[in-house]
Specification:
The complex is a heterodimer of chains A (219) and B (117). Chain A is α+β, with helices and mostly antiparallel strands. Helix content of chain A is 44%, strand content 18%. Chain A folds into two domains: 64 residues, lambda repressor-like DNA-binding domains (434 Repressor (Amino-terminal Domain)), CATH 1.10.260.40; 140 residues, Histidine kinase-like ATPase, C-terminal domain (Heat Shock Protein 90), CATH 3.30.565.10. Chain A contains eight helices and five strands; from the N terminus they run H-H-H-H-H-E-H-H-E-E-H-E-E. In chain A, strands 1-2-3-5-4 form a five-stranded antiparallel sheet, covered by helices on one side. The two termini of chain A are 27 Å apart. Chain B is of the alpha/beta class and 117 residues long. In chain B, strand 3, helix 2 and strand 4 form a beta-alpha-beta unit. Chain B is globular. Chain B starts with a strand and ends with a helix. Classes of the chains: A alpha+beta (219), B alpha/beta (117). The interface between A and B is medium-sized, with 29 and 25 residues.
Chain lengths: 219, 117
């Protein structure tokens, strides 16, 4: 998380308007707004005044910028039944979480696609639909990347072991290649995919996406 | 997801409008609906995707299946897919296989050409 996001969140929690905060700090409302959008960096002195006005130690806002160790990662998690009808709820959830972390649209679309394919595979192949069971989707954000972990206790299913399709021949044997097409797409939109399995923890798939610098929709 | 079948009154061409997410949960429903049409007199399908917000590999598989089934007798044309759907088709490298059109007229023309060839 960065200073801007943390500041805006804190201001929301405290219920303090831009104007009120600006007045307390002795700056313009647009200055605060720019800080929140990370369009400008406040001086240490201003940061101290902002912190005082919001009744938090200055370190709270500073940490947002400096502390990027693994423990500082924000992690959100959802647990869903092994039913295809929950895929749309999962997409809404992932969409909201990514948007609130100001992820560029293109990256969001890629993540939605990979998470949907991976989850469909868990429901269809690891659990074979079967009796009600659950899988977890955990999303964590770093400054430069988004990591999505999918955990299920179905039968061992490693998507990375599935051979990829010859795309040119797709029309012929489409039914059989459904699974491969999904994995092909997933691999293409993610920067890294890892898989591990243990009898106790079941399948653990990790999807990693580097956050692109440009915020526009680039094709 | 919502599926609406509109008769174009033009020999064997059916316009099918889909709205919502075409994911693993709804792909079968679309496939069933299209299968029913193809069992009757339908030879070509214009699939209006303007209201489709998401397309998964299962959805793509259904599109490929329709493509295959109408091959030689008519064809499949995707009408007005949105940016998200277009991008997914490109990512899957299926943009060469799946014909797209911006208007119904354009789609009809494509199908007309296809039938003659």
């Amino acid at each position: 998380m960065n200073v801007g996001v943390r500041l805006r969140e804190l201001r929301n929690v405290r219920g303090i308007s831009l104007r009120t905060l600006a007045k307390k700090v002795g700056v313009s409302a647009s200055f605060i707004s720019q800080v929140e959008q990370n369009k400008c960096r406040p001086s240490l002195d201003k940061l101290r005044k902002i912190s005082e006005a919001l009744d938090v130690p200055t370190s709270y806002l500073l940490e947002a910028e400096e502390d990027e160790g693994p423990s500082s990662k924000e992690v959100v998690e959802i647990r869903l039944p092994n039913r295809l009808q929950y895929l749309s709820i999962l997409a809404d959830f992932v969409g909201h979480v990514c948007r609130s972390n100001e992820l560029p649209n293109e990256d969001l679309e890629d993540i939605l696609l990979a998470v949907d394919e991976a989850s469909s595979n868990i429901i269809k192949y690891a659990y074979q639909v079967g009796p009600i069971n659950y899988f977890k989707v955990r999303i964590s954000f770093d400054r430069e990347l988004v990591q999505v972990d999918l955990l299920d206790k179905g039968i061992k299913f490693n998507p990375l072991e599935i051979p990829l399709p010859e795309m040119k021949g797709m029309t012929g044997e489409y039914k059989e290649k459904d699974l491969r097409l999904g994995i092909f797409v997933m691999k293409k939109v993610m920067d890294d995919i890892r898989y591990r399995y243990s009898p106790n923890e079941g399948n653990h798939l990790t999807l990693i996406k580097r956050i692109s610098q440009s915020k526009g929709h680039v094709l | 997801m919502k599926i609406e079948v509109i008769d174009t009154q033009k020999g064997g061409i059916q316009l099918v409008k889909i709205d919502g997410r075409l994911d693993a949960n709804f792909s079968l429903q679309l496939e069933d609906e299209i299968d029913k049409l193809l069992e009757q007199k339908t030879k070509s399908i214009i699939l209006d995707l303007s209201g489709v917000t998401y397309l998964s590999s299962s959805g793509l598989r259904v599109l490929l299946s329709i493509n295959k089934q109408t091959e030689g007798i008519g064809g499949l044309v995707l009408l007005n897919p949105g940016d998200v759907v277009k991008r997914i088709i490109e990512v899957a490298e299926l943009d060469d296989l799946l014909t797209q059109a911006k208007t119904v007229e354009e789609a009809m023309a494509i199908l007309g050409v296809k039938k003659k060839s």
